[in-house]
Each structure stands twice: as C-alpha cells, then as structure tokens.
Amino acid sequence: MSDKALVIISTGEVEKALTGLMWATNALRFGWMEDVKVIFFGPSQKLLLEDERVAKFAAQIGEVEQPVACKFISDRDHNSSQIAEKGVRVEYVGPIISNLIKEGYVPMVY
After folding, report:
1. pLDDT score, position 39
2. Spatial separation of the C-alpha atoms in residues 34 and 36, rounded to whole Å
3. SS3 69
C-alpha cells in the first residue's frame, strides 16, 4: 500500500475544497503519509483567489510542500500571476498528475 497521496482540489464548492485541504494539511503536519502533493485544478483555482480560508490552507501547505495550480486554466482565466502571488506554483498539471500516479501516489479528488 502506498504512503504517498496526491490531493487534487478541483471543486468549485468551498466546503468540499476545505475538506480536502484540511486533510492534506493535517497529513503533512502530523506525518500521516510519507508525502502529500496538492494540486488546484479547474474551479478550485477561482476559490483560491476568492475565499480567504482556501488561500490560508494553501499557504499552510506551502510551508511544507508548495501546491501547484493548472497553468492552462489560470492562463485561460487570466489569473496566473494572482495565483502565484498566493504562493502556489503555476504549471501544466497533466504531466505532473500522470507522473505522480506512476510513482505510486494515490489520487484523492475533492
């Protein structure tokens, strides 16, 4: 069984996003998993900019492991620089997700 998790936050619903971010934060903080990666993908990228609680969790995660947001989506929505200002790396996430799964990370999608 893998002890590495890939938390993909893709929802546009604040409460769902906060659930995934809370788990990821605590898994990193308390060492529940060997490694946890967090990716913002799709509607959640707007939440990152619009909801202070989502941004706060992203910042907390960033103290241990910098989260990533999808460059295609953020370029399309013209908010790549604002996302980067939140401490979230902006990159094309398709290859990142694929490679992490190949490396044994278990995807958890919120």
Report:
1. 98
2. 7
3. strand
Q: Judging by beta carbons within 10 Å of its beta carbon (0-12, 13-18, 19+), is residue 87 exposed, middle or buried?
A: middle
Q: Order of strands, edge to edge, in the sheet holding 106-109?
A: 89-91, 68-70, 35-40, 4-9, 106-109
CATH number of 4-109: 3.40.1260.10
Task: Find, among 43, 56, 110, the residue nearest to 86 by Cα.
Answer: 56
8 Å CB contact between 18 and 53: yes
Cα(110)–Cα(18) distance, integer angstroms: 9
What are the extents of the domains in the chain? Answer: 4-109
What is the pLDDT averaged over residues 45-73? 96
> Quick check: pTM over 0.85?
yes
DSSP for residue 33:
S
How far apart are alpha carbons 55 and 102 in whole angstroms? 29
The pLDDT of residue 2 is 81
